[in-house]
Amino acid sequence: MGHHGWGGRPPASDAEARQRIIDATARCIDRHGVTKTTLSDVAGELGVTRQTVYRHFGRISDIIGEVAAQGAESFVDLMIAHLQGITDPAEAVVEGMVFCVRTIPTEPRLSLLLQLGDTTAFGRGATTRETIAYGAKMLQRFPVDWAAAGIDEDDLNGLAEIIMRLLTSLLQHPSEPPQDETRLRTFLNRWLAPALSRTSASAHPRS
């Protein structure tokens, strides 16, 4: 690891270098906007060469993805707080999706993924194995007894994948004219909620 640049304080590890690159990228985005932020901007912010940045990240979109990911935790906390008291699986999933569609475009770090010139970046990132696993962990935090509803760990992975695919479509390709929350909730209750309701019903058959 080079000792030039870095504001005279070279990072002590690769992990620290990556985090400082991510933080510098966030500052550049605040000043220039996401579409005008380049690897050269990030390197200049840190006082290092582009090659130094390339040693840790191959593309500017990779760094922006990390900036966005680090904003995800606080977003999930807000969503879980919003869902408190909703214990029905179908209702919780629908309300969670409505919350995401309403909130993600207004969350600076999360909406970064939607503003990239590479418009497929969000779609790819939303359906990777890692992202789906993260989505399943997020669902486990819902105020829902998934096991009692007949939904096991494998089911949660599948549910997380379909949710991410639907969110990708709803966020990147909104309806014309745009749906308000009432219409979106009606749409999801008609086409998504029944699958969860049937799963829950099958876990508790009538005697």
UniProtKB/TrEMBL annotation:
Ranges of residues in domain HTH tetR-type: 15-75
Keyword Glycosyltransferase included in the entry's annotation: no
Keyword annotations from UniProtKB, A to Z: DNA-binding, Transcription, Transcription regulation
Pfam families noted in UniProt: TetR_N
Cross-referenced PROSITE patterns: HTH_TETR_2
Cited InterPro entries: Homeodomain-like_sf, HTH-type_TetR-like_transc_reg, HTH_TetR
Domain of life: Bacteria
DNA-binding segment(s): 38-57
KW Transcription (keyword) present: yes
Name of this chain's protein: AcrR family transcriptional regulator
The organism of origin for this protein: Streptomyces umbrinus
